[in-house]
Amino acid sequence: MSIDLAAVLHDVVDRGLPDGPAPVDVPRVRAQARRRRAVHLGARGAVGVGAAGAVALGAVHLAGARDARTVLPSDPDAAPGECGSSVAGLEGTPDPTLGLARSWWSAPGAGTTANGPAAVPGPGDLGTYVGREVWVQAVSSRPQDGAGEPATELSSLQDTLALVEQGYTDRLAARAAGKDVSQDELDERAETVAALQASIDTRVADGEVPPATPAVARVRVLVTHGERVVATAVLPEEGTSDAVAVWNRATSGLLSEQVRLGLVTCTVDGVGGDPLPAGTYEVFVARGGGPLTSASGPWTLTIPPHASAASGLPGDFPVDAVPMPPGTVLAVAGDATAGWRVELDVAGDDRLFVAADLLTALDGATEEGRDPLGVTVDVPGWFVEIHPGDEGDETSLFYEVRPR
Length: 404
What we know:
The chain has about 400 residues and is of the alpha+beta class. It has three domains: about 110 residues, no CATH class; about 140 residues, Immunoglobulin-like (Sandwich); about 80 residues, no CATH class. It is built from six helices and 15 strands. The strands form three sheets. It has a six-stranded antiparallel β-sheet, covered by helices on one side. The chain has a five-stranded mixed β-sheet with strand order 2-9-8-4-5, with no helix packed on it. A hairpin with an 8-residue loop joins strand 8 and strand 9. Helix 2 runs parallel beside helix 3 and helix 3 runs antiparallel to helix 4. The N terminus is likely disordered.
């Protein structure tokens, strides 16, 4: 029996249903697989998955009330780049081979292409975010990291195979640990692995030679305020598999990877973990693996004031079954029988995915699809579609809520 590779891959990653032939979109599938794996590592044990057999997906929770009285970390004795340290001595010699950019994992309008970045991004605006964490994209052009040779279809297939094999191994381990993992799911993943391997074998037999696998580049991202490091992130994250830790190779020859950056205070003397207060922060990126002597940047990142809960919804609207991020209701129509259409004004480039994560965190919720154009989620009793506004720089979300 022949396998529609694209449909099967999208089904494995998104848990959707194959509905016919589609062009192979390996870079997109690989990016989604990386996101599922990375979020799972960060949310292990914190957030349940609604449907048995679904790929584990954690919620990017709202940060809650941001307290302007929060004491930001400060440690004059900390080494450069550590929590509370000063970045005053790191800004003079930026690294031109390393940069940061918005990621569509958090900012759907970032415009990341399947072919990857064309140039190392220079300092600029990373956006405005209301979630408790944000994803940004690190980009490297350094040959020592493996940059230089462009990605090929064969290298993309090989990278994707490594990720899908890792997912298969994870599900086997989950079943061995007593989790509800069906044999059908395992068979499906094994079939996908076989299909990918067959495609790779065909290309190798035809004489194709892929570029060498990139090295696992280690970087540190620093969020600063008043020249003090107040939040940090590192790559690779603890617990990351080798398949996930290897950076993506773009057709330009550049390498890129997604960095999960918590918008909470780092820890000094056991104190930390508080949501960063509203304001504008400067962000730097530096190579890890030794004492920091320089950093690229700064980029800017804005956290808006905390908005009040959405108000103005009808009394019979299922606010507990369909939670919404704080914002202003601009329009609402419908009823409990036919369903509702709601337009909500929400600050933040991450508003679509924050809204989605609030739904997927519910017990019994199943995410049917997620991309920059919209999200569909089944929650108990309701089917919810969310789409971002597309008029200029609108900050609206459109909800379609239908009874099931």
